[in-house]
Amino acid sequence: MSWTAIIVLAIGVYAMKAAGPLLFAGRSLPERWEGVATMVAVPLLAALVVTQTVTAGHHFVLDARLPALGVAAAAVALRFPFLVVVLLGGGTCALLRLLF
Amino acid sequence: MVRSRPQIQATDKVAGRAVAIGVATGVYGLSFGALATAAGVSTAKAVALSALVFTGATQIAVIGVIAGGGGMVSAVANGLVVAMRHLAYGVAVSPLLPDRRPARLLAAHVIIDESTAMGTGAPTRDEGRRAFLLTGASVFVFWNLATFAGAELSRAVASPHALGLDAMFPAAFLALLAPQLRQRRAPAVAAAGALIATLLIPVAPAGIPVLASVAALVLVLRERAS
């Protein structure tokens, strides 16, 4: 992670935050675009779940991460707090790697 | 995190809630710090991300791409796309920000999920102003302290692989995704995004399959246009 990347990100994200207060004061986004703006993270997060679970570089790799995701999904369904979900995912994976 | 319309009566109640949300977000910040370390990002850079970028899901997406071997350009592009909802937040909280330009510019930095939810959920504009600023400031403090602590604590750990730190990423993304699936059409968009990424994994450079998944948004765009 380079400092340039951090600065570009910081400027880009701040520009998005400040655009509304500076340019759109007293107005609102067209309804169609508001829907897209709030939905935009959904496909990205779903894609990140898939790629982080079953790939290593360009290849599909099935390992302890898949059952770990299953446990994390159960924790999400049971509405466990964020940190608990993350720790259960990591913990399951670590346990499986220790055992097998 | 708090989506319900809060019944706030007094300033101390607003402040109490703001601190509670800050602490809860701090717990999430511990995960971010640990994930940054697992991705090979230094503590200084992890804290710089938290202080300067200051949007949890975006930060985690960026280091997720880096952990997956993606290039810096696709990591930044992914982060910026995840951050796009802040455009809508900025419009929504615009009336709650201070009127004077310097204060307004400073307050814009703390436009995040939590401060937007608390500010727009308050019963009056005055309380909305206080709730927005107090929540934003509280989350900022706890988020940065927790990033530092999480990064340093996990650095003390010997083998990230043996501890399953790589499995913490998909778990974190799933936990971020779940509440968003309540939006109409969101499950279909999520499924389409996952499918696009899966098809591209064998053929595209790391980072691109995730970025390309935003094409799934046509499902929403076309519907709203018709």
Automatic annotation (TrEMBL), chain A:
InterPro entries: Brnchd-chn_aa_trnsp_AzlD. It holds the Pfam family AzlD. The keyword Membrane applies. The chain crosses the membrane at residues 6-24, 36-60, 80-99. Keywords: Membrane, Transmembrane, Transmembrane helix. This is Unannotated protein. It comes from freshwater metagenome.
From TrEMBL, chain B:
Its main location: membrane. It is found in: Cell membrane. GO terms for biological process: L-valine transmembrane transport. The chain crosses the membrane at residues 20-39, 131-151, 157-177, 189-221. It is a multi-pass membrane protein. Keywords: Cell membrane, Membrane, Transmembrane, Transmembrane helix, Transport. GO terms for cellular component: plasma membrane. Pfam families: AzlC. PANTHER family: INNER MEMBRANE PROTEIN YGAZ (PTHR34979:SF1). Belongs to the AzlC family. This is Unannotated protein. It comes from freshwater metagenome. The lineage of its organism: unclassified sequences, metagenomes, ecological metagenomes.
